[in-house]
Amino acid sequence: MAGSGIIDAHVHLYPSEVSADPARWAAHRHEPLWGALVTPQPGRRVQQGWADADRLLRDMDAAGVERAVLLGWYWQRHETCVWHNRIYAECVRAHPDRFSAFATVQAAAGADVAIREMNRARDDGLVGLGELCPWSGGGSALDEDWQAVLAHAVALGWPVNLHVTDPASRLFPGRVVTPLEDVVTLARQQPGLRLILAHWGGGLVFHELNAHARQALQNCVYDTAATPLLYDPAIYAAAVRAVGAERILFGSDYPLMVFPREQSEPDLTRVLAQVRAASLDDAARAAVLGGSARRTMGIV
Ligand SMILES: [Zn+2]
């Protein structure tokens, strides 16, 4: 029988070697884009929180989350991707009942190199690809190397989580422009690709009211990552009306502090309270909180 607990489909973990001094770690690893994103901005509340696997497990228990899907990051360097994938493989080996994990790769290292790493990650127990952002650093998901990587995800049967930003949202250091048109083109060109479009696909979820977009995006689903930072809570009910709850996956973006006014450390209870308070019927809420992720990722 399939499980029915809550699944958080969008979590990032960093070991203590990173959180001890993120800016220094980023410089040492030659990851300036990530470094810019996690560095506190003058005059703004700190949003980046930090958690290792033990801390995450405690926060999952406190919030009643059964399973977390660990997502990699869109690192600039292949070596950093490999490092993160190995850490996630260890997490999954240690807690197969609580964690699933996606691999991350950088196609700029060459599609052959990235594909070899995907195969190795698959052998290590990882079950998807992401969070990717091919546009970060000036590339595009439509580049030849990324197309080959994404075609290999289809061959492996892997879902792919894609970071998508809303073109109407606030500009901040490290924000990447992810043209929604590219996402639609990608989905159209690779109809076998199971895309999980993060952050409500940067608003693409509402473009599905356009029949052309709806047809192209029929194999895509959306996650709710970072909703409290980005949208009014009315988005839950509005998006369920637009595409159906079976195509929406709860994701927190933990350990990001998505309620920066109320939070001084990572936590999953507040964001879950927001989903529970949304005006959804019980079946829709159950789908968003776990059923849709189970179907998308084949979790039982
Ligand atoms: Zn993201």
Structure in words:
The protein has a single domain (6-297), classed as Metal-dependent hydrolases (TIM Barrel), CATH 3.20.20.140. It contains 15 helices and eight strands. It has helices spanning 16-19, 22-29, 32-38, 53-63, 78-94, 111-123, 144-156, 180-189, 198-201, 204-207, 211-216, 227-230, 235-243, 269-277, 282-297, and strands spanning 6-11, 65-70, 99-101, 129-132, 159-162, 194-197, 221-223, 248-249. The strands form two sheets. The chain has a five-stranded parallel beta sheet with strand order 4-5-6-7-8. It has a three-stranded parallel beta sheet with strand order 1-2-3. It is globular, with a radius of gyration of 18 Å. Residues 131, 163, 198-199, 225 line the site of zinc ion.
List the helices and strands and how they pair.
Elements: E1 6-11, H1 16-19, H2 22-29, H3 32-38, H4 53-63, E2 65-70, H5 78-94, E3 99-101, H6 111-123, E4 129-132, H7 144-156, E5 159-162, H8 180-189, E6 194-197, H9 198-201, H10 204-207, H11 211-216, E7 221-223, H12 227-230, H13 235-243, E8 248-249, H14 269-277, H15 282-297
Parallel strand pairs: 1-2, 2-3, 4-5, 5-6, 6-7, 7-8
Helix pairs in contact: 2-3, 5-6, 6-7
Bound molecules: zinc ion (ZN).
Name a few traits of the molecule.
single chain; 300 residues; alpha/beta; five-stranded parallel β-sheet; 45% helix; binds zinc ion
